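Section 5: illustrative case.
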């Protein structure tokens, strides 16, 4: 292991997750000017994060589902309900078979 390659300001920092409303104490080199009093009575630098493992859908199991039916309806109102792919022509000018069908 090489000497003097690690940062010198590695210290305890409190990370606050705004979405989940939790805080956790870990070590970091992140720069911050705010401080907070932790559960042990000591004051530590604090850094606010928007998302962490406590609020991320992958870790919580609460996935957000996209409203695909609403998107399809918006598309149909914008472009018409009978919007379909036109058949492609091959080099001889004949209709080539499409790779997929709408039906």
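Designed sequence:
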């Amino acid at each position: 292991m090489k000497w003097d390659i690690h940062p010198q300001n590695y210290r305890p920092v409190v990370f606050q997750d705004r979405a989940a409303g939790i805080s956790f104490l870990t070590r970091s080199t992140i720069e911050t000017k705010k401080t907070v009093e932790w559960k042990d009575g000591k004051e530590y630098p604090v850094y606010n994060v928007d998302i962490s493992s406590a609020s991320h859908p992958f870790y919580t199991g609460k996935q957000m589902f996209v409203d695909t039916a609403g998107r399809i309806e918006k598309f149909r109102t914008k472009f018409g309900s009978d919007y379909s792919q036109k058949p492609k022509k091959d080099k001889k000018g004949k209709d080539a078979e499409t790779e997929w069908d709408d039906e």
